[in-house]
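Need residues for this backbone.
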């Protein structure tokens, strides 16, 4: 870091990549006491310490103790996701009369940017200290042809800790050629901050419909009403309450791994979901400008991930809420478009707000 850091931000060496580049973590303390630790490798949040009543703190995200854990990670713990969050069928799409072939890293499909997505690159990091907003602005230039995508894509992701225990993520991107863009964030949350699973966490999602998938977790193109299904989260429901029901969609995902069609997608930043852990009284509200929200119940965590404090991450150890455009949109013209063209600017915002016992 070439210039002096603000008092609220502290940089620490985190290790060295195989090619010799140094990796850094940044500890960012917000005005309300919430503390984020984020690394420039993958623009990854490694820790999110949320303060509560009586001075209690808890780390509400899963992560690893050291850099090697993130280098080896295949579950996207805490990472920035791009160029395209979620799946693209057969790792290919057609755009303006040309077919583009992407890397296949999810059986025969493309997932989260491929084998070397934004979670595996070293980002340029700059501290932000502006009127009580403390954070890090990450920048990366993805070259033309990166992962098979057209156009040079310049990306900025800004992570800010604000008052009221808010983490705000702002996304901005421009391109030199038409290309799909679908950026998101992939923290696994556990509001208990413990070894317990999240099956007891109660979820509310502001969605009247979801996008069903086939056996490869690719949307079929249908927009299905949630009424009468295990996907009706319009009122709070425990994650584990219906996750074992006999349902084709639940069977395909091994639990929840589906995109929800949010209400009011053209209304700017709006409330999309609330998750509450009844045992601890901790809650998380999510607001987003995106039209969709991927709810993932940690179905593919299998005990092979050993995380912070030696914790073994078993199935359902954490949940993800990933604001996004719909999966496979480049192959689904009926879905909201993810195509960014030269002269346009991609903008998106997500806010996570934490509270305890109504605080």
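Answer:
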């Amino acid at each position: 870091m070439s210039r002096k850091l603000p008092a609220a931000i502290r940089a620490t060496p985190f290790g060295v990549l195989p090619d010799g580049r140094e990796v850094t973590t940044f500890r960012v303390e917000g005005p309300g006491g919430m503390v984020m630790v984020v690394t420039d490798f993958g623009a990854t949040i490694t820790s999110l310490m949320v303060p509560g009543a009586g001075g209690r703190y808890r780390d509400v995200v899963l992560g690893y103790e050291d850099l090697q854990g993130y280098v080896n990670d295949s579950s996207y713990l805490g990472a920035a996701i791009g160029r395209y969050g979620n799946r693209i069928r057969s790792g290919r799409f057609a755009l303006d009369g040309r077919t583009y072939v992407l890397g296949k890293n999810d059986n025969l499909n493309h997932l989260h940017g491929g084998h070397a997505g934004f979670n595996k690159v070293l980002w340029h990091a700059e501290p932000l200290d502006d009127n009580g907003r403390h954070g890090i602005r990450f920048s990366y230039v993805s070259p033309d042809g990166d992962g098979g995508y057209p156009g040079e894509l310049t990306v900025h992701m800004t992570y800010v800790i604000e008052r009221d225990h808010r983490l705000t993520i702002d996304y901005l991107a421009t391109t030199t050629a038409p290309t799909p863009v679908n950026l998101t964030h992939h923290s696994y949350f556990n509001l208990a901050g413990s070894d317990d699973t999240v099956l007891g966490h109660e979820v509310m999602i502001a969605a009247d419909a979801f996008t069903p998938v086939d056996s490869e977790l690719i949307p079929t193109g249908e927009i299905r009403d949630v009424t009468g299904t295990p996907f009706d989260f319009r009122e709070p429901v425990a994650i584990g309450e219906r996750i074992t029901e006999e349902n084709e969609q639940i069977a395909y995902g091994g639990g929840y791994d589906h995109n929800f069609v949010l209400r009011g997608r053209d209304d700017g930043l709006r409330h999309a979901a609330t998750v509450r852990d009844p045992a601890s009284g901790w809650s998380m509200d999510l607001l987003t400008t995106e039209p969709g929200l991927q709810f993932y119940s940690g179905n593919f965590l299998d005990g092979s991930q050993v995380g912070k404090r030696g914790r073994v991450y078993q199935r359902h150890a954490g949940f993800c809420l990933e604001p996004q455009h719909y999966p496979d949109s480049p192959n689904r013209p009926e879905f909201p478009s993810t195509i960014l063209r030269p002269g346009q600017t991609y903008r998106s915002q997500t806010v996570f707000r934490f509270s305890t016992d109504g605080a």
